[in-house]
Every structure is written in C-alpha cells, then in structure tokens.
Specification:
By secondary structure, the chain is an alpha/beta fold. Helix content is 31%, strand content 21%. Strand 9 and strand 10 form a beta hairpin. The longest helix has 18 residues.
C-alpha cells in the first residue's frame, strides 16, 4: 500500500437546517422567534485514505457515515472543513481538475434498484457517462460497455435488459460497472451488500477485492456489518453520532478494541464459536443528532462513564502504533 494520500478529510462537518414550513414563516412574520432545528450529521471528522487502501467505516444507523461518504464523493457540500483530493482542496477545483475529481471518485449505492433508471436498458445506463463527458467515440461505446460487464462477471447479453429483468446481485454488479465506466481511482461504497442475500454478498465482496487487485482502487467501504468489514478492510474507523471514536488496522480493532462503543459492537457480532450465548444489546438508543449530548456523545450509554465524560469532549489520541481512540479511559489522570 502506498503512503500517498488520495483523500484527506480535515475537521469535516455537515449540518442540515430544514427550511421553515408555512406555519413557522407566519409565526416569524408575527415576530415570534422559532428555535432552529439543526441536524449535526457529521461533527469534526479527520481521516486520510492512502492509495490502494480499503478503509471500513462502521456505525449504527443515523451515525452520519452515509453523509460522510456523500461529502467525499462530492454529492453534498460540507458545512465546514475540507475534502482534499490528491493534495488539492476539492471545493476549489475548477475546469479539468474538477472533472478529474468528479470522475475519479465514484459512489456505489446501497439500493441498486433505486439507483438505476427503470426506463433505460442497461447499455444506455452504462454508456451515459461516456457520452456526457465525451470519454469515447460513439462507435466505441458498446465495446466499453461490454468490457465493463465482463469486469463484473456479466456477459454481453445483459446489455439489452432493463433493471427489473435482472436479480438484485446482478443489479449491484451493474452499479459497480457503471462506476468503472469512467475509470475511477477511488470508490465510496455505501452499504453495497446490505440488500443482498448472504451467498450473493460473498460474491460481490470477492468482486470488490478482485477489482482492487486488478486496478489498485482505494475504497471507503461503509457498512454496519462487522463481518463484511473485517473481511475486506485494511483499516477500520468506528463512527458514533457524527464523530470517529476509534480507528486502527482491522486486525487490531478485532483483537484489541479500545473504545467502549467498539467493544459493545464487537460483543454483538455473531460468532459461530459462541453459539447459544445471549446477546446483550447496547443500552439505550443512539441520541438524536438534533440535540447531541455534551461532552463524550457516547456517555449516556457507556458503562464506564465518568463525571468528566458529561462535560469534556475526548479527542482521538494515539494509544498504539496506528491505533487511535477517543476515550478518557486512556488518560492516566482518569485512573
């Protein structure tokens, strides 16, 4: 794996403020002040992805991992912070540099059915990016489509089918093929196997690994399935309520998880060697991003919470080589 960074995130934040409805606008015109309802989706993320690396991003639903992925792919703009692509601020890119970033970072979505136009045949879906960006002559588009289909393990006969005429696993392969059409270097994979049967999941994961070996792709692999992440990732980042609370090489995370939230997730992970055991879910529910807790956002659910956890926000610190965690239990003064 090269040490050259493809993507760097620095203090990345995203807040969503819904537009006021009619009743709120009337109250505002009448002089009544309405409290702002701000969703703190991503709240200060620092992350670097090196060329050829697979970083798994794990967390419960609503933790902000999909929003983070969309900011990396340039689909939504950060409220604060920067996304750096190959050493350049993505927000300041223009012209050919902007196009290089747009094509170089592609996203594969969770629901392949929703991400494919049901009225278009597959060859038109796959060839659209080539035509829009003038990446191939008209006479060469079909050959490029057939090549992409072959790359993802589908024969050329699929090109004339509609999305509803193929299975879920095949639709996800089409989503991957569509990303490959523009020859990207970085793929944001947002729960790409969550909607698939277990046997099909294994096939698609193996496809991702084959493509990485063949093309040297870099992946941000977003998932809630720790088993999948363990199989495919070089490093794993654990996200909770908009923040990364732990990051380390995959082997280190699964052998020596440090943060109480990571430990709780691993405890819930199914294990064939421990059949018959009782699962103990994490107590409580993930707090609302409309009103995140003060201090450590995990403290309302943490079995080791201390008074300082309610008022101070822990920062990611090195606890071992390549292993960082944001927990006051690592602070010697907390003993």
């Amino acid at each position: 794996m090269s040490d050259t960074a493809v993507i760097e995130l620095r203090d990345l934040r995203k807040r969503f403020e819904p537009r006021p409805d009619l009743a709120q606008r009337i109250l505002t015109m009448a002089g009544k002040t309405m409290p702002k309802r701000t969703v703190h989706a991503v709240n200060g993320v620092d992350l670097t992805l090196a060329r050829g690396e697979v970083v798994g991003l794990v967390g419960e639903s609503g933790c902000g991992k999909s929003t983070l992925g969309r900011m990396v792919a340039g689909l939504i703009r950060p409220t604060e912070g920067t996304v750096t692509y190959k050493g350049r601020d993505a927000a300041k890119l223009t012209g050919r540099d902007k196009l290089e970033y747009t094509l170089g970072v592609q996203m594969i979505f969770q629901d392949p059915q929703a991400s494919l136009n049901p009225r278009q045949r597959l060859h038109k879906i796959l060839g659209e990016s080539l035509r829009v960006h003038n990446l191939a002559a008209s006479k060469d588009v079909q050959a490029r489509v057939d090549q992409a289909l072959s790359e993802v393990g589908l024969s050329a006969e699929y090109r004339d089918r509609f999305p509803h005429q193929i299975s879920g696993g095949q639709r996800q392969r089409i989503g991957i093929a569509r990303a490959l059409m523009v020859q990207p270097s970085f793929l944001v994979c947002d729960e790409p196997v969550a909607a698939l049967d277990v046997s099909i999941q294994a096939q698609v994961i193996n496809l991702f690994m084959d493509l990485r070996d063949r093309h040297g792709f870099t992946y941000l692999f977003i998932s809630h399935d720790l088993g999948v992440v363990r199989h495919i990732s070089d490093r794993v980042a654990i996200m909770y309520l908009g923040r990364i609370v732990e990051i380390a090489p995959a082997r280190e995370i699964f052998a020596r998880a440090n943060h109480p939230y990571t430990q709780a997730l691993l405890t819930e992970m199914p294990n064939v060697a421990q059949r018959g055991r009782n699962f103990t879910p994490i107590k409580g529910e993930i707090p609302s991003p409309l009103s995140p807790p003060s201090g450590c956002t995990f403290h309302p659910r943490c079995p080791h919470a201390m008074p300082r956890c309610k008022v101070e926000e822990p920062v990611l610190k090195d606890i071992a080589s390549g292993h960082r965690s944001a927990c006051f239990l690592n602070d010697t003064s907390a003993a």
